[in-house]
Specification:
Elements: E1 2-4, E2 15-18, H1 43-52, E3 56-62, H2 73-87, E4 95-99, H3 115-122, E5 128-133, H4 136-145, E6 148-151, H5 157-170
Parallel strand pairs: 2-3, 2-5, 3-4, 5-6
Antiparallel strand pairs: 1-4
Helix pairs in contact: 1-5
Length: 171
């Protein structure tokens, strides 16, 4: 497992964790080609909303393409740097936690395991409070981590996060 933490602050409210492919960005298969980086509708606004409410923002992402040699760790880091750059206007991403292993590795960091969430919490950012994702392994990872799950597979990510934020603030 690897994680990037350029400037970690502590967020007492906690951290909203986003899946990367299929959640924040369009899922175009196992790649880390900056030319194919396309954000899903509402993704940047969802990050801005979360940051504006005082939460940290993290990404938890399975990236088996590193282990299967579809792309290098350097390519992954460059892709994530560009993703961070494009999201900076919305308040930025505090931590990116990545599992580079194939599912056959049976590691403890590949979702639906909880290793990525533990890494985010251990970064000093704060405790994950909600996971925004689009797959069954994302949902199972949230359950295993005992945090709320928001499914955005067939929904506008901003609208789902906004609905959650209203109930969180109310309650």
């Amino acid at each position: 497992m690897d994680y990037e933490t350029p400037e970690v602050s502590h967020y007492p409210k906690g951290v909203v964790v986003f899946d990367r492919d299929g959640t924040l960005i369009e899922d175009a298969g196992q790649h880390n080609d900056v030319a194919r980086l396309v954000f899903r509708e509402g993704a940047i606004d969802a990050i801005a909303l979360v940051k504006g409410l005082g939460f940290g923002v993290a990404i938890a992402s399975n990236q088996a393409g590193v282990e299967t040699d579809k792309f290098s760790l350097a390519q992954l880091m460059a892709f994530n740097a560009e993703l961070r750059s494009q999201v900076a206007i919305a308040g930025g991403i505090d931590v990116i936690a990545v599992c580079p292993h194939h599912e056959s590795s049976q590691c403890g960091c590949r979702k639906p395991q909880i290793g990525l969430f533990e890494a985010i919490e251990n970064s000093g950012l704060g405790a994950p409070v909600v996971f925004v994702g689009d797959t069954e392994s994302d949902r199972l990872a949230a359950i295993a981590s005992k945090i709320h799950y928001l499914d955005v597979a067939h929904s506008n990510i901003f609208e789902v996060v906004q609905d959650w934020s209203r109930s969180y603030e109310a309650g």
